[in-house]
Inverse folding.
Protein backbone atom coordinates (compact mmCIF):
# COMPACT_ATOMS: atom_id res chain seq x y z
CA UNK A 1 0.00 0.00 0.00
CA UNK A 2 1.38 3.40 -1.00
CA UNK A 3 1.49 5.80 1.95
CA UNK A 4 0.36 9.44 1.86
CA UNK A 5 3.56 10.95 3.26
CA UNK A 6 2.21 14.48 3.32
CA UNK A 7 -0.78 13.38 5.38
CA UNK A 8 1.56 11.49 7.72
CA UNK A 9 3.48 14.70 8.32
CA UNK A 10 6.78 13.28 7.10
CA UNK A 11 9.74 15.60 7.66
CA UNK A 12 13.20 14.71 6.42
CA UNK A 13 16.51 16.53 6.55
CA UNK A 14 20.01 15.20 6.09
CA UNK A 15 23.66 15.95 6.65
CA UNK A 16 26.41 15.17 4.16
CA UNK A 17 29.91 14.57 5.52
CA UNK A 18 32.55 14.73 2.77
CA UNK A 19 36.26 14.14 3.44
CA UNK A 20 38.59 16.72 1.93
CA UNK A 21 41.76 15.78 0.06
CA UNK A 22 44.27 17.63 2.27
CA UNK A 23 46.40 16.90 5.32
CA UNK A 24 44.63 16.63 8.68
CA UNK A 25 42.66 19.50 10.15
CA UNK A 26 44.67 20.32 13.27
CA UNK A 27 48.13 18.95 12.42
CA UNK A 28 50.28 18.26 9.35
CA UNK A 29 49.87 14.46 9.37
CA UNK A 30 48.87 12.92 6.01
CA UNK A 31 45.22 11.96 5.64
CA UNK A 32 45.57 8.45 4.25
CA UNK A 33 44.16 5.19 5.52
CA UNK A 34 46.43 2.22 6.11
CA UNK A 35 45.94 -1.52 5.59
CA UNK A 36 49.02 -2.93 7.29
CA UNK A 37 48.98 -3.92 10.95
CA UNK A 38 49.74 -0.97 13.25
CA UNK A 39 52.98 -0.87 15.19
CA UNK A 40 51.70 0.76 18.39
CA UNK A 41 48.63 0.64 20.63
CA UNK A 42 47.35 2.94 23.39
CA UNK A 43 44.53 2.18 25.84
CA UNK A 44 42.17 4.79 27.25
CA UNK A 45 38.93 5.25 29.16
CA UNK A 46 36.58 8.19 28.60
CA UNK A 47 34.10 9.63 31.08
CA UNK A 48 31.20 12.07 30.63
CA UNK A 49 31.58 15.57 32.07
CA UNK A 50 29.19 18.44 32.67
CA UNK A 51 28.76 21.15 30.08
CA UNK A 52 29.12 24.84 30.89
CA UNK A 53 25.43 24.79 31.80
CA UNK A 54 26.03 22.05 34.36
CA UNK A 55 24.32 19.39 32.26
CA UNK A 56 25.53 15.93 31.28
CA UNK A 57 24.58 15.02 27.71
CA UNK A 58 22.25 11.99 27.66
CA UNK A 59 24.00 10.38 24.69
CA UNK A 60 27.38 10.68 26.45
CA UNK A 61 25.89 9.24 29.64
CA UNK A 62 24.44 6.31 27.69
CA UNK A 63 27.87 5.55 26.21
CA UNK A 64 29.47 5.68 29.67
CA UNK A 65 26.96 3.13 30.99
CA UNK A 66 28.45 0.54 28.63
CA UNK A 67 31.59 0.60 30.77
CA UNK A 68 33.99 -0.15 27.94
CA UNK A 69 37.58 0.93 27.44
CA UNK A 70 39.23 1.82 24.15
CA UNK A 71 42.33 0.52 22.41
CA UNK A 72 43.82 2.85 19.80
CA UNK A 73 45.99 1.56 16.95
CA UNK A 74 48.43 4.04 15.44
CA UNK A 75 51.21 4.54 12.91
CA UNK A 76 54.05 6.89 13.99
CA UNK A 77 54.40 8.37 10.49
CA UNK A 78 50.73 9.39 10.11
CA UNK A 79 49.49 9.82 13.70
CA UNK A 80 50.97 12.39 16.06
CA UNK A 81 50.46 13.64 19.61
CA UNK A 82 47.50 15.77 18.52
CA UNK A 83 45.47 12.66 17.61
CA UNK A 84 46.54 11.04 20.89
CA UNK A 85 45.34 14.13 22.79
CA UNK A 86 48.81 14.54 24.27
CA UNK A 87 49.41 17.88 22.54
CA UNK A 88 47.15 20.88 21.83
CA UNK A 89 45.74 21.18 18.31
CA UNK A 90 47.82 23.10 15.78
CA UNK A 91 46.35 26.05 13.84
CA UNK A 92 43.47 25.15 11.52
CA UNK A 93 44.35 23.75 8.09
CA UNK A 94 43.88 26.86 5.91
CA UNK A 95 43.48 24.85 2.69
CA UNK A 96 40.62 22.84 4.22
CA UNK A 97 39.01 26.07 5.41
CA UNK A 98 39.20 27.51 1.89
CA UNK A 99 37.57 24.37 0.44
CA UNK A 100 34.73 24.59 2.97
CA UNK A 101 34.22 28.27 2.08
CA UNK A 102 34.23 27.33 -1.62
CA UNK A 103 31.49 24.73 -0.99
CA UNK A 104 29.51 27.31 0.96
CA UNK A 105 29.68 29.86 -1.87
CA UNK A 106 28.66 27.23 -4.44
CA UNK A 107 25.57 26.59 -2.32
CA UNK A 108 24.75 30.29 -2.07
CA UNK A 109 25.44 30.40 1.68
CA UNK A 110 26.71 33.38 3.67
CA UNK A 111 30.15 32.80 5.25
CA UNK A 112 30.57 34.06 8.80
CA UNK A 113 32.77 37.07 9.46
CA UNK A 114 34.60 35.11 12.15
CA UNK A 115 34.90 31.35 12.58
CA UNK A 116 35.02 29.82 16.06
CA UNK A 117 35.95 26.24 16.87
CA UNK A 118 33.51 24.31 19.07
CA UNK A 119 33.85 21.06 20.98
CA UNK A 120 31.06 18.49 20.56
CA UNK A 121 31.02 15.83 23.30
CA UNK A 122 31.51 12.31 21.88
CA UNK A 123 32.61 9.55 24.27
CA UNK A 124 31.97 6.44 22.20
CA UNK A 125 35.76 6.24 21.80
CA UNK A 126 35.89 7.51 18.23
CA UNK A 127 37.69 10.66 19.45
CA UNK A 128 40.55 10.20 21.91
CA UNK A 129 39.84 13.52 23.66
CA UNK A 130 36.14 12.82 24.22
CA UNK A 131 34.93 15.47 21.81
CA UNK A 132 34.90 16.36 18.12
CA UNK A 133 36.08 19.79 16.96
CA UNK A 134 33.66 21.61 14.65
CA UNK A 135 33.80 25.03 12.98
CA UNK A 136 30.61 26.71 11.78
CA UNK A 137 31.58 28.22 8.39
CA UNK A 138 28.41 29.54 6.76
CA UNK A 139 24.63 29.73 7.02
CA UNK A 140 21.64 30.40 4.77
CA UNK A 141 22.45 28.22 1.76
CA UNK A 142 20.01 26.72 -0.74
CA UNK A 143 19.80 23.77 -3.09
CA UNK A 144 17.31 23.41 -5.96
CA UNK A 145 15.81 20.03 -6.85
CA UNK A 146 12.95 19.45 -9.31
CA UNK A 147 12.29 23.18 -9.39
CA UNK A 148 11.93 23.48 -5.60
CA UNK A 149 14.33 25.27 -3.27
CA UNK A 150 15.47 23.62 -0.02
CA UNK A 151 17.28 25.26 2.89
CA UNK A 152 20.87 24.54 3.87
CA UNK A 153 21.03 26.37 7.20
CA UNK A 154 24.44 25.09 8.33
CA UNK A 155 27.79 24.37 6.66
CA UNK A 156 30.61 23.27 8.96
CA UNK A 157 34.21 22.14 8.82
CA UNK A 158 35.04 19.35 11.25
CA UNK A 159 37.47 16.53 11.94
CA UNK A 160 36.62 12.94 11.03
CA UNK A 161 36.51 10.28 13.73
CA UNK A 162 38.74 7.26 14.26
CA UNK A 163 37.92 4.04 12.40
CA UNK A 164 36.21 1.35 14.46
CA UNK A 165 38.05 -1.92 13.85
CA UNK A 166 36.31 -4.28 16.28
CA UNK A 167 34.63 -4.65 19.64
CA UNK A 168 35.11 -7.10 22.48
CA UNK A 169 33.52 -7.57 25.89
CA UNK A 170 35.77 -5.00 27.60
CA UNK A 171 37.50 -3.04 24.81
CA UNK A 172 36.59 -1.33 21.54
CA UNK A 173 39.37 -1.13 18.93
CA UNK A 174 39.87 2.06 16.91
CA UNK A 175 42.49 3.01 14.32
CA UNK A 176 43.68 6.61 14.45
CA UNK A 177 44.69 7.07 10.78
CA UNK A 178 41.26 8.57 9.96
CA UNK A 179 40.99 10.73 13.09
CA UNK A 180 41.48 14.38 12.18
CA UNK A 181 40.88 14.13 8.41
CA UNK A 182 38.97 17.31 7.44
CA UNK A 183 35.27 16.94 6.66
CA UNK A 184 32.88 19.48 5.23
CA UNK A 185 29.44 18.98 6.80
CA UNK A 186 26.41 20.27 4.91
CA UNK A 187 23.08 20.14 6.75
CA UNK A 188 19.71 20.72 5.10
CA UNK A 189 16.58 21.88 6.86
CA UNK A 190 13.74 19.41 7.60
CA UNK A 191 12.15 20.52 4.34
CA UNK A 192 11.61 17.22 2.53
CA UNK A 193 8.19 15.60 2.75
CA UNK A 194 8.68 12.47 0.64
CA UNK A 195 11.29 9.67 0.59
CA UNK A 196 12.57 10.36 -2.92
CA UNK A 197 13.61 14.02 -3.21
CA UNK A 198 16.28 13.79 -0.46
CA UNK A 199 18.23 11.28 -2.56
CA UNK A 200 18.20 13.68 -5.54
CA UNK A 201 19.33 16.57 -3.35
CA UNK A 202 22.13 14.50 -1.78
CA UNK A 203 23.30 13.43 -5.24
CA UNK A 204 23.43 17.03 -6.44
CA UNK A 205 25.31 18.28 -3.36
CA UNK A 206 27.79 15.41 -3.78
CA UNK A 207 28.29 16.40 -7.42
CA UNK A 208 28.84 20.00 -6.36
CA UNK A 209 31.52 18.97 -3.87
CA UNK A 210 33.27 16.75 -6.42
CA UNK A 211 33.24 19.64 -8.89
CA UNK A 212 35.74 21.43 -6.62
CA UNK A 213 38.28 18.68 -7.39
CA UNK A 214 39.42 18.84 -3.75
CA UNK A 215 37.50 16.04 -2.08
CA UNK A 216 38.41 12.43 -1.48
CA UNK A 217 36.81 9.71 -3.60
CA UNK A 218 35.87 6.14 -2.82
CA UNK A 219 33.88 4.13 -0.28
CA UNK A 220 33.68 5.73 3.14
CA UNK A 221 34.84 9.20 2.06
CA UNK A 222 31.29 10.56 1.91
CA UNK A 223 28.55 9.65 4.38
CA UNK A 224 24.99 10.79 4.97
CA UNK A 225 23.09 11.14 8.25
CA UNK A 226 19.31 11.26 7.77
CA UNK A 227 16.89 12.94 10.21
CA UNK A 228 13.32 11.62 9.97
CA UNK A 229 10.05 12.17 11.83
CA UNK A 230 6.32 11.83 11.27
CA UNK A 231 3.38 13.48 13.04
CA UNK A 232 2.96 11.84 16.44
CA UNK A 233 6.36 10.17 16.11
CA UNK A 234 9.79 11.54 17.00
CA UNK A 235 12.99 12.65 15.29
CA UNK A 236 15.42 9.86 14.52
CA UNK A 237 19.01 10.57 13.50
CA UNK A 238 20.15 7.72 11.27
CA UNK A 239 23.91 7.68 10.89
CA UNK A 240 26.47 6.26 8.51
CA UNK A 241 24.58 5.79 5.24
CA UNK A 242 27.10 5.44 2.42
CA UNK A 243 24.89 4.49 -0.55
CA UNK A 244 22.64 7.16 -2.06
CA UNK A 245 20.48 4.45 -3.59
CA UNK A 246 19.39 3.39 -0.09
CA UNK A 247 18.17 6.81 1.08
CA UNK A 248 14.60 6.35 -0.17
CA UNK A 249 14.38 2.79 1.19
CA UNK A 250 15.72 3.89 4.55
CA UNK A 251 13.16 6.70 4.84
CA UNK A 252 10.28 4.43 3.82
CA UNK A 253 11.27 1.82 6.38
CA UNK A 254 11.72 4.36 9.17
CA UNK A 255 8.19 5.65 8.48
CA UNK A 256 7.01 2.02 8.62
CA UNK A 257 8.81 1.54 11.96
CA UNK A 258 7.35 4.67 13.55
CA UNK A 259 3.82 3.79 12.41
CA UNK A 260 4.22 0.31 13.89
CA UNK A 261 5.51 1.72 17.20
CA UNK A 262 2.56 4.11 17.37
CA UNK A 263 0.31 1.13 16.73
CA UNK A 264 1.94 -0.75 19.63
CA UNK A 265 1.42 2.26 21.91
CA UNK A 266 -2.26 2.49 21.01
CA UNK A 267 -2.77 -1.26 21.46
CA UNK A 268 -1.21 -1.26 24.95
CA UNK A 269 -3.38 1.69 25.97
CA UNK A 270 -6.47 -0.07 24.61
CA UNK A 271 -5.55 -3.14 26.67
CA UNK A 272 -5.20 -1.02 29.80
CA UNK A 273 -1.43 -1.27 30.15
CA UNK A 274 0.05 1.15 32.65
CA UNK A 275 3.78 0.68 32.70
CA UNK A 276 6.42 -1.96 33.44
CA UNK A 277 7.94 -2.27 36.90
CA UNK A 278 11.65 -3.05 37.14
CA UNK A 279 11.03 -6.27 39.08
CA UNK A 280 13.67 -8.79 37.94
CA UNK A 281 13.00 -12.39 38.96
CA UNK A 282 15.46 -15.30 39.13
CA UNK A 283 13.90 -18.18 37.16
CA UNK A 284 16.99 -20.39 36.97
CA UNK A 285 15.13 -23.24 38.70
CA UNK A 286 12.58 -23.40 35.87
CA UNK A 287 15.38 -24.38 33.45
CA UNK A 288 17.26 -26.86 35.63
CA UNK A 289 16.57 -29.67 33.11
CA UNK A 290 16.35 -27.57 29.95
CA UNK A 291 17.10 -28.83 26.46
CA UNK A 292 18.03 -25.34 25.27
CA UNK A 293 21.73 -25.34 24.37
CA UNK A 294 22.06 -21.59 24.93
CA UNK A 295 20.57 -21.69 28.44
CA UNK A 296 22.37 -24.94 29.35
CA UNK A 297 25.71 -23.42 28.27
CA UNK A 298 25.10 -20.26 30.31
CA UNK A 299 24.23 -22.24 33.43
CA UNK A 300 27.29 -24.45 33.08
CA UNK A 301 29.40 -21.28 32.96
CA UNK A 302 27.97 -20.20 36.31
CA UNK A 303 25.29 -17.90 34.95
CA UNK A 304 21.66 -17.46 35.92
CA UNK A 305 18.34 -17.04 34.13
CA UNK A 306 16.59 -13.80 35.01
CA UNK A 307 13.17 -12.69 33.77
CA UNK A 308 10.93 -9.64 33.64
CA UNK A 309 7.18 -9.45 33.10
CA UNK A 310 5.78 -7.03 30.50
CA UNK A 311 2.07 -6.57 31.38
CA UNK A 312 -0.30 -6.40 28.37
CA UNK A 313 2.58 -6.90 25.86
CA UNK A 314 1.65 -10.41 24.66
CA UNK A 315 1.84 -10.69 20.89
CA UNK A 316 3.43 -7.28 20.48
CA UNK A 317 7.05 -8.37 20.79
CA UNK A 318 6.62 -10.35 17.58
CA UNK A 319 5.10 -7.41 15.69
CA UNK A 320 7.16 -6.53 12.61
CA UNK A 321 8.54 -2.98 12.57
CA UNK A 322 10.74 -3.35 9.48
CA UNK A 323 11.35 -6.36 7.23
CA UNK A 324 12.79 -9.17 9.41
CA UNK A 325 12.97 -6.80 12.43
CA UNK A 326 10.35 -6.98 15.19
CA UNK A 327 9.69 -5.07 18.38
CA UNK A 328 11.50 -7.87 20.21
CA UNK A 329 14.54 -7.04 18.05
CA UNK A 330 14.42 -3.45 19.34
CA UNK A 331 14.41 -4.73 22.92
CA UNK A 332 17.33 -7.05 22.12
CA UNK A 333 19.32 -4.19 20.53
CA UNK A 334 19.06 -2.16 23.75
CA UNK A 335 19.84 -5.18 25.93
CA UNK A 336 22.96 -6.07 23.94
CA UNK A 337 24.23 -2.51 23.86
CA UNK A 338 23.96 -1.81 27.58
CA UNK A 339 24.96 -5.21 28.94
CA UNK A 340 26.98 -7.15 26.38
CA UNK A 341 24.63 -10.17 26.43
CA UNK A 342 24.38 -12.23 23.27
CA UNK A 343 20.60 -11.96 23.05
CA UNK A 344 17.36 -12.57 24.90
CA UNK A 345 14.26 -14.78 24.79
CA UNK A 346 10.62 -13.75 24.94
CA UNK A 347 7.38 -15.69 25.17
CA UNK A 348 5.98 -14.42 21.86
CA UNK A 349 8.38 -16.81 20.11
CA UNK A 350 8.07 -19.81 22.47
CA UNK A 351 8.02 -22.76 22.76
CA UNK A 352 11.06 -23.00 20.44
CA UNK A 353 14.88 -23.11 20.57
CA UNK A 354 14.81 -26.16 22.84
CA UNK A 355 12.50 -24.44 25.34
CA UNK A 356 9.41 -26.54 26.12
CA UNK A 357 5.80 -25.57 26.81
CA UNK A 358 6.28 -26.89 30.33
CA UNK A 359 9.13 -24.42 30.86
CA UNK A 360 7.01 -21.57 29.45
CA UNK A 361 4.25 -22.46 31.93
CA UNK A 362 6.85 -22.52 34.70
CA UNK A 363 8.00 -19.05 33.66
CA UNK A 364 4.45 -17.72 33.91
CA UNK A 365 3.98 -19.14 37.38
CA UNK A 366 7.34 -17.80 38.58
CA UNK A 367 6.73 -14.26 37.29
CA UNK A 368 2.99 -14.12 38.02
CA UNK A 369 2.22 -13.52 34.35
CA UNK A 370 -1.40 -13.85 33.24
CA UNK A 371 -3.01 -14.04 29.83
CA UNK A 372 -2.05 -10.97 27.82
CA UNK A 373 1.36 -10.57 29.50
CA UNK A 374 4.71 -11.21 27.84
CA UNK A 375 7.92 -12.38 29.54
CA UNK A 376 11.46 -11.52 28.53
CA UNK A 377 14.34 -13.51 30.01
CA UNK A 378 18.12 -13.68 29.70
CA UNK A 379 20.60 -16.46 30.47
CA UNK A 380 24.02 -15.02 31.34
CA UNK A 381 26.18 -13.82 34.22
CA UNK A 382 23.89 -12.25 36.84
CA UNK A 383 25.29 -8.73 36.50
CA UNK A 384 24.99 -8.75 32.71
CA UNK A 385 21.51 -10.28 32.78
CA UNK A 386 20.31 -7.61 35.24
CA UNK A 387 21.71 -4.81 33.05
CA UNK A 388 20.07 -6.34 29.99
CA UNK A 389 16.63 -6.58 31.61
CA UNK A 390 16.92 -3.05 33.01
CA UNK A 391 17.45 -1.84 29.44
CA UNK A 392 14.43 -3.90 28.30
CA UNK A 393 12.21 -2.34 30.98
CA UNK A 394 13.31 1.17 30.00
CA UNK A 395 12.61 0.51 26.32
CA UNK A 396 9.25 -1.14 27.06
CA UNK A 397 8.17 1.89 29.08
CA UNK A 398 9.21 4.16 26.22
CA UNK A 399 6.86 2.13 24.00
CA UNK A 400 3.96 3.40 26.14
CA UNK A 401 4.79 6.90 24.92
CA UNK A 402 5.19 5.88 21.27
CA UNK A 403 8.48 6.61 19.47
CA UNK A 404 11.54 7.55 21.54
CA UNK A 405 14.06 10.01 20.06
CA UNK A 406 17.13 7.97 19.08
CA UNK A 407 20.33 7.89 17.12
CA UNK A 408 20.21 4.79 14.93
CA UNK A 409 22.69 3.05 12.66
CA UNK A 410 21.92 2.49 8.97
CA UNK A 411 22.13 -1.18 8.01
CA UNK A 412 23.13 -2.42 4.52
CA UNK A 413 19.57 -3.57 3.70
CA UNK A 414 17.93 -0.20 4.45
CA UNK A 415 16.80 -1.11 7.98
CA UNK A 416 18.19 0.59 11.09
CA UNK A 417 19.24 -0.41 14.61
CA UNK A 418 19.50 1.43 17.92
CA UNK A 419 22.81 3.14 18.73
CA UNK A 420 22.08 5.55 21.59
CA UNK A 421 19.58 8.23 22.72
CA UNK A 422 19.46 11.39 20.65
CA UNK A 423 22.03 13.91 21.93
CA UNK A 424 20.78 16.94 23.83
CA UNK A 425 21.57 20.62 23.36
CA UNK A 426 24.24 20.63 26.08
CA UNK A 427 26.90 18.75 24.14
CA UNK A 428 28.53 21.79 22.46
CA UNK A 429 30.94 24.20 24.12
CA UNK A 430 33.77 26.49 22.94
CA UNK A 431 37.25 25.19 22.07
CA UNK A 432 39.72 27.08 24.27
CA UNK A 433 42.92 26.03 22.43
CA UNK A 434 42.16 27.56 19.01
CA UNK A 435 41.67 31.32 18.45
CA UNK A 436 38.86 32.64 16.22
CA UNK A 437 39.66 33.04 12.51
CA UNK A 438 38.58 36.17 10.65
CA UNK A 439 37.08 35.57 7.20
CA UNK A 440 38.09 38.68 5.29
CA UNK A 441 36.37 40.09 2.18
CA UNK A 442 39.70 39.67 0.32
CA UNK A 443 39.80 35.96 1.11
CA UNK A 444 36.25 35.48 -0.14
CA UNK A 445 36.95 37.45 -3.35
CA UNK A 446 39.97 35.24 -4.10
CA UNK A 447 37.84 32.11 -3.63
CA UNK A 448 34.96 33.45 -5.75
CA UNK A 449 37.34 34.12 -8.66
CA UNK A 450 38.30 30.44 -8.86
CA UNK A 451 34.89 28.86 -8.20
CA UNK A 452 34.33 25.84 -10.48
CA UNK A 453 31.45 25.49 -12.91
CA UNK A 454 28.25 24.18 -11.47
CA UNK A 455 27.72 20.51 -12.45
CA UNK A 456 24.78 21.25 -14.77
CA UNK A 457 26.72 23.95 -16.63
CA UNK A 458 29.77 21.73 -16.94
CA UNK A 459 27.70 18.88 -18.41
CA UNK A 460 26.10 21.19 -20.95
CA UNK A 461 29.50 22.58 -21.96
CA UNK A 462 31.03 19.12 -22.43
CA UNK A 463 28.14 18.08 -24.65
CA UNK A 464 28.23 21.26 -26.72
CA UNK A 465 31.99 21.80 -26.94
CA UNK A 466 33.17 18.20 -27.27
CA UNK A 467 30.11 16.40 -28.60
CA UNK A 468 29.95 13.94 -25.69
CA UNK A 469 26.73 12.02 -25.15
CA UNK A 470 24.64 12.89 -22.10
CA UNK A 471 25.74 9.92 -19.98
CA UNK A 472 29.44 10.30 -20.81
CA UNK A 473 29.26 14.06 -20.23
CA UNK A 474 27.67 13.39 -16.83
CA UNK A 475 30.50 11.07 -15.83
CA UNK A 476 33.25 13.29 -17.17
CA UNK A 477 31.80 16.42 -15.50
CA UNK A 478 32.30 14.75 -12.11
CA UNK A 479 35.54 13.00 -12.93
CA UNK A 480 38.92 13.78 -11.41
CA UNK A 481 40.20 13.25 -14.99
CA UNK A 482 38.36 16.27 -16.40
CA UNK A 483 41.41 18.53 -16.60
CA UNK A 484 43.45 15.70 -18.15
CA UNK A 485 40.65 15.02 -20.65
CA UNK A 486 40.59 18.61 -21.88
CA UNK A 487 44.38 18.76 -22.12
CA UNK A 488 44.53 15.50 -24.13
CA UNK A 489 41.85 16.72 -26.54
CA UNK A 490 43.73 19.98 -27.04
CA UNK A 491 47.15 18.38 -27.60
CA UNK A 492 46.31 15.18 -29.49
CA UNK A 493 43.34 16.44 -31.56
CA UNK A 494 41.86 12.96 -31.13
CA UNK A 495 38.14 12.24 -30.97
CA UNK A 496 36.90 13.56 -27.56
CA UNK A 497 34.52 10.65 -27.12
CA UNK A 498 37.40 8.19 -27.56
CA UNK A 499 39.51 10.04 -24.98
CA UNK A 500 36.63 10.29 -22.47
CA UNK A 501 35.72 6.63 -22.92
CA UNK A 502 39.34 5.59 -22.45
CA UNK A 503 39.74 7.59 -19.24
CA UNK A 504 36.38 6.70 -17.71
CA UNK A 505 35.79 3.14 -18.95
CA UNK A 506 38.83 1.47 -20.52
CA UNK A 507 41.28 2.36 -17.74
CA UNK A 508 38.72 1.38 -15.10
CA UNK A 509 38.19 -1.99 -16.80
CA UNK A 510 41.94 -2.61 -17.05
CA UNK A 511 42.42 -1.74 -13.38
CA UNK A 512 39.81 -4.34 -12.45
CA UNK A 513 41.82 -6.89 -14.43
CA UNK A 514 44.84 -6.08 -12.28
CA UNK A 515 46.66 -3.85 -14.79
CA UNK A 516 48.64 -1.13 -13.00
CA UNK A 517 47.13 1.75 -14.95
CA UNK A 518 48.27 4.25 -12.31
CA UNK A 519 51.85 4.04 -13.67
CA UNK A 520 50.82 5.20 -17.15
CA UNK A 521 52.16 8.73 -17.59
CA UNK A 522 50.33 11.65 -19.19
CA UNK A 523 52.97 11.79 -21.93
CA UNK A 524 52.17 8.18 -22.88
CA UNK A 525 48.47 9.02 -23.18
CA UNK A 526 49.31 12.02 -25.36
CA UNK A 527 51.40 9.79 -27.63
CA UNK A 528 48.67 7.14 -27.71
CA UNK A 529 45.92 9.49 -28.86
CA UNK A 530 48.25 11.34 -31.25
CA UNK A 531 48.97 7.95 -32.88
CA UNK A 532 45.24 7.43 -33.41
CA UNK A 533 44.88 10.94 -34.85
CA UNK A 534 47.78 10.36 -37.30
CA UNK A 535 46.36 7.01 -38.43
CA UNK A 536 49.18 4.96 -36.89
CA UNK A 537 46.81 3.14 -34.53
CA UNK A 538 43.10 2.30 -34.60
CA UNK A 539 40.90 2.95 -31.59
CA UNK A 540 40.11 -0.76 -31.20
CA UNK A 541 43.77 -1.36 -30.32
CA UNK A 542 43.89 1.20 -27.49
CA UNK A 543 43.28 -1.32 -24.63
CA UNK A 544 46.07 -3.63 -25.85
CA UNK A 545 48.56 -0.79 -26.14
CA UNK A 546 47.63 0.47 -22.66
CA UNK A 547 48.32 -2.98 -21.20
CA UNK A 548 51.84 -2.87 -22.59
CA UNK A 549 52.36 0.76 -21.60
CA UNK A 550 51.49 -0.17 -18.00
CA UNK A 551 54.46 -2.57 -18.13
CA UNK A 552 56.81 0.30 -18.94
CA UNK A 553 56.82 -0.10 -22.74
CA UNK A 554 56.53 3.06 -24.87
CA UNK A 555 53.50 3.47 -27.13
CA UNK A 556 55.61 3.18 -30.28
CA UNK A 557 57.31 -0.01 -29.05
CA UNK A 558 53.98 -1.46 -27.90
CA UNK A 559 52.51 -0.98 -31.38
CA UNK A 560 55.52 -2.71 -32.95
CA UNK A 561 55.68 -5.50 -30.37
CA UNK A 562 51.98 -6.34 -30.71
CA UNK A 563 51.99 -6.00 -34.51
CA UNK A 564 49.29 -3.36 -34.35
CA UNK A 565 50.58 -1.08 -37.09
CA UNK A 566 47.58 0.02 -39.15
CA UNK A 567 47.04 -1.98 -42.34
CA UNK A 568 47.45 -0.02 -45.56
CA UNK A 569 44.15 0.56 -47.34
CA UNK A 570 45.10 -1.56 -50.37
CA UNK A 571 46.02 -4.52 -48.18
CA UNK A 572 42.84 -4.18 -46.12
CA UNK A 573 40.69 -3.93 -49.28
CA UNK A 574 42.32 -7.10 -50.64
CA UNK A 575 41.63 -8.94 -47.38
CA UNK A 576 37.95 -7.86 -47.44
CA UNK A 577 37.61 -9.14 -51.04
CA UNK A 578 39.10 -12.50 -50.05
CA UNK A 579 36.72 -12.93 -47.08
CA UNK A 580 33.66 -11.95 -49.12
CA UNK A 581 34.66 -14.30 -51.95
CA UNK A 582 35.14 -17.23 -49.58
CA UNK A 583 31.72 -16.72 -47.97
CA UNK A 584 29.53 -16.58 -51.09
CA UNK A 585 27.07 -19.16 -49.75
CA UNK A 586 26.57 -17.16 -46.52
CA UNK A 587 25.95 -13.95 -48.48
CA UNK A 588 23.50 -15.60 -50.89
CA UNK A 589 21.56 -17.08 -47.99
CA UNK A 590 21.47 -14.05 -45.66
CA UNK A 591 21.98 -11.00 -47.88
CA UNK A 592 22.77 -7.83 -45.89
CA UNK A 593 22.37 -9.83 -42.67
CA UNK A 594 25.71 -11.44 -43.59
CA UNK A 595 27.54 -8.19 -42.71
CA UNK A 596 27.64 -8.99 -38.96
CA UNK A 597 29.33 -12.41 -39.28
CA UNK A 598 31.67 -11.05 -42.00
CA UNK A 599 32.66 -8.23 -39.62
CA UNK A 600 33.42 -10.81 -36.94
CA UNK A 601 35.67 -12.77 -39.30
CA UNK A 602 37.53 -9.70 -40.53
CA UNK A 603 38.02 -8.03 -37.16
CA UNK A 604 39.49 -11.29 -35.90
CA UNK A 605 41.87 -11.37 -38.88
CA UNK A 606 43.00 -7.74 -38.64
CA UNK A 607 43.17 -7.86 -34.79
CA UNK A 608 43.38 -4.20 -33.92
CA UNK A 609 45.07 -3.09 -37.12
CA UNK A 610 42.05 -1.59 -38.85
CA UNK A 611 39.23 0.72 -37.88
CA UNK A 612 35.92 -1.09 -37.52
CA UNK A 613 33.98 1.63 -39.29
CA UNK A 614 36.29 1.43 -42.30
CA UNK A 615 36.03 -2.38 -42.40
CA UNK A 616 32.23 -2.09 -42.37
CA UNK A 617 32.29 0.37 -45.30
CA UNK A 618 34.57 -1.88 -47.35
CA UNK A 619 32.33 -4.90 -46.74
CA UNK A 620 29.31 -2.94 -47.96
CA UNK A 621 31.21 -1.89 -51.08
CA UNK A 622 32.15 -5.50 -51.86
CA UNK A 623 28.57 -6.69 -51.28
CA UNK A 624 27.32 -4.19 -53.86
CA UNK A 625 29.83 -5.57 -56.37
CA UNK A 626 28.76 -9.10 -55.40
CA UNK A 627 25.12 -8.32 -56.22
CA UNK A 628 25.91 -6.76 -59.58
CA UNK A 629 28.13 -9.64 -60.65
Amino acid sequence: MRLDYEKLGLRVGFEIHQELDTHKLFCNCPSRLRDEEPRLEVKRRLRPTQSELGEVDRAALAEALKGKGFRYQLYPDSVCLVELDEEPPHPVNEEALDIALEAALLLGARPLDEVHTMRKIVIDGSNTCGFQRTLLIATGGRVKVDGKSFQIPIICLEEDAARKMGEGIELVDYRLDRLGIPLVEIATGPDFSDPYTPAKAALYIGQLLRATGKVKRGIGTIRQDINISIAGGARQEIKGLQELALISTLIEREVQRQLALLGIRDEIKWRGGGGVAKKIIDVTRVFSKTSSRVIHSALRAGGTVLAIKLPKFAGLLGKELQPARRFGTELADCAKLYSGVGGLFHTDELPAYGISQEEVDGLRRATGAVEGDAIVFVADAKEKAEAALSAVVDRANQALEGVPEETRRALPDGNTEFMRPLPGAGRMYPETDIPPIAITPLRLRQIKVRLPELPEKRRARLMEEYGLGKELAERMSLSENLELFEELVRKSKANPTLIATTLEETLVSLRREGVRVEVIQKAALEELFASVTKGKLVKEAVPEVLRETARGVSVRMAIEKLGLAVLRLAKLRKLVREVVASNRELIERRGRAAIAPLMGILMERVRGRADGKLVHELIEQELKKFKSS
